[in-house]
Design goal:
The chain is rod-shaped. The longest helix has about 60 residues, at about 5-65. The protein contains 1 helix and no strands. It has about 70 residues and is mainly alpha-helical. It has one domain.
Length: about 70
């Protein structure tokens, strides 16, 4: 391999590495956004289930009062 070819290979390797490192912050941001979305979805599901339980209990107590 000639010196010129070796230098081109080194340049190419450096450029690839540089491009990859530039994308790392975006990957990190995307991972954080996905984690946040999962957390928000989980919280919304819990809140919905809690509200459904509350409404069922309210309806049951309302029916008991009507029966009495």
């Amino acid at each position: 391999m000639s010196l010129e070819q070796k230098l081109k290979k080194i340049d190419h390797t450096f450029m690839d590495k540089s491009e990859t490192e530039k994308l790392i912050p975006f990957k990190s941001l995307e991972e954080r956004m996905l984690k946040y979305k999962r957390e928000v979805d989980h919280k919304a599901k819990e809140d919905l289930e809690s509200e459904i339980r509350r409404l069922k209990e309210f309806e049951m107590s309302k029916m008991r009062i009507e029966e009495a």
